[in-house]
Specification:
By secondary structure, this protein is of the alpha+beta class. Helices cover 20% and strands 28% of the residues. It has a single domain (2-144, 182-232), classed as 4-Layer Sandwich (CNF1/YfiH-like putative cysteine hydrolases). It has a 6-stranded mixed β-sheet with strand order 1-2-3-15-7-4. It has a 6-stranded mixed β-sheet with strand order 5-6-9-8-10-14.
Length: 234
Amino acid sequence: MNVSADPRYLTVPRLSRIPGLIHGFGTRHWTLADFKKHKEWKNFKVVWLKQIHSNVIRFIENLPPRRLQGDALATDRPGIFLILKTADCLPVFLVDESKRVVAAVHCGWRGTRQRILEGAVRGLGERYGSEPASLLAVFGPCIGPSCYEVGEDVRQDFQKARLPEDVFRAGHGRPGKLLLDLPEANRRQLIGQGVRLENVVENDICTHCDGRFLSYRRDRNKTARLTNFIGLAF
């Protein structure tokens, strides 16, 4: 993952090589207001959701008249930035280069338990004809597996949902606490849907450890969020 021409957000080389694709994973210094300062993006519209830790996917053909609820966005229309807000949860971009389709998926532990990433892959197939094997999946910064401490109730929820339990391991000695590998849990969902392992692009940035990023667990700020974006140029 590289610092972009604008150091307030990071880009991924593999995505940057796709013509007409614009993307970024925001640091704490990048906000929605900054989109208006880029002259080359002046005709873009931004769409973001009221994120509710769900498995709800919204397919965007036109600018919605109101803010929608859900945790994933997808479009094949140019000139629209799909926005995800995160502060420890995993942002995932899905790209079908041949069909010119992009998606942005918010994967917290609740969304992961509800298999939102699986649903997004299936949704791209149903809506746009995207084949899982042709998809590129890119993981943005999130809380790392050595820092994401959760309760036993989360493991039990994963068990009830028939999700792999080996994404959990012993915590730092606190009773009833475990560590969850959020990227691994979502990687499993992608591979299970037929996405090729070599098309899953990850990074080693932990939002809890890296001060460039906001972390709910570290900062205890209920409102501050990172702004992540992806869109197709006109």
